[in-house]
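Predict the 3D structure for this chain.
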Amino acid sequence: MAAATRSPADTPPPPHEGPPESRLSRLRYRLSVIRHAPTGPLGILLITVLLYLVVAPLVAVLSDSTRVQIGDEGQAHQDPGSLTSYYVWRVFRSPVSELLFWKPLLHTVVVALGVTALAVVLGGSMAWLLTRTDVAGRKWLSTALVVPYMLPSWTFALAWLALFKNSSSGGQIGILEAWGVHTPDWLAYGQLPIIICLGLHYYPFVLLLFGNALRRIDSQLEDSARILGAGRGTVAARITLPLMLPSLSSSVLLVFGRILGTFGTPYILGLPVNYDLLSTSLFRAVNSQQRGVTAVLAGVIVVIGVLAIVVDTRLAREAKRFVTVGGKGAMDRRAPLGRWRRPAFCVALTVFTAAVLVPVVSLALTTVTKTPGVLRADNFTLKYWIADHLEGTPGFPHGVLRGTQLYEAAWNSLRIVGLAALVCGVVGLLIGYVVVRAGHSRVGTLLRQISFLPYMVPGIAFAAAFLSLFAVRRGPVPALYGSISLLVIVLAVTHLPYASRSGISAMTQLGREPEEAAQISGAGWFARLRWIVIPIQRGALVTGVILPFVSGLKELSIVIMLTTSGTELLTTLSINLVDYAYDQMANAVVLVIALVSFLATYFTQRLTKTNLSSGLGG
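Done. Predicted structure below.
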């Protein structure tokens, strides 16, 4: 008997397909779900953009280190674009490797250790005074002692030159040299000044970390040990110090990581005696158009920075072993200093004087005196600020407040940094929304990790990576070097970790109920975002915008290789004046930056009702 046959029309569709009407209904339903809750597609979009803006630059710079660059085919004996190990050999094994890498690496390690030691001693001792004692003027000191962190890091370097500069590097001599006190090169330039200046800049970073950690240690543990007969040294060695080890380790590693990307201070104080760190060696390679060498040096800095952050992350997990439980009153107890109360205040005031008053006053004096250190009435002048014409300064032939250079640089700084901060804040809030709403999904986890990646890359290396990716046209993306767009992108990306962490923290505290209620009422996602999420998270959004703005105003390491004459910022204007040996004008510009940065920080704290010193009880 012949088997019955069926036409294709009689064949039922596979279970997973269903009739066309059913598939269309499901598609419409999925689109409706995405329209009302687009967490998944939004997360994928953000991941794609961040992969291109965060990962692609690093891949591009690493690619440059393994391929022969145009112009190097003679030295590499290979065709341009072919795979090569020439640049690795040149940096690590060639006759010039000592100058390119090994000496700068040694200098970087020595400076990092010295800066860390100085910052830990100053920051740790000040944190103990402010959190564990009744030192006089405690509330004022808790704010005053963090002021150095609000200033550009190279403010201290310029102030150091204003005091100690000798005649060996040209330009105006320092105040001590004008007084007849000869300052040798080792005191005026190089290793020692770099360590002291960076230590004075970074000690508030340790102060804040230590202060917060000390406040969280239950003092009842120390009291119990003393009741059992333990002396102060035993209590410190067996209880306080072990509980502080995670904070100490984190401070050391994070300061070390920041030293890797610091450019201004090593450049200003190291250039006269050819004392290079990895950051300045990288800058020299960029200036001499050695793209392959630049890529290798940037890769090394990235690897070291990533290792520092990875170790810090592991230590943070290990810190959970040191959690203590106690009442707030027990944790906030302060020891009376008695007759040492005022001397302790004098010590803290000395630190403030050395870190703030001396640098600022020294810079200010150089801008209003013809000859440094001479305090006669006929030696004071305002020509470096307001003169229409200055002799002997062809590149900057007028006072700082005359002409257009300062105002153009200020306008560029405000609009570029402001736009970058706005982008950073909005994207940070969106990242927080996706990460929290997506829960423990792969999209949320991956987005959290990628948004934190820029924090692991030192600024100078990240700038080199962006230069490698955007210096030439790549596919549909045009060459962006020298454009405002590139500066906005790089500033937004490098400050994204702070904005994204602010967004994640804020969204964690916002439940789903307000959105769900609005969704039941028929509100779409954009409406919910506009009328519910953003108003409720306004504080987090403001923080995510203003903090990158304050940091961006004094940023130098990230932008020094990416600006041109048409996109000059206040920070790069100051460094360019240093290169021309126009010390008075350079000092004047950095004072303007310091004033703008301080005012921006002050108004930020007032607007957001936060305080850098709040963790110290100030």
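Residues 224 and 230 are 9 Å apart (CA to CA).
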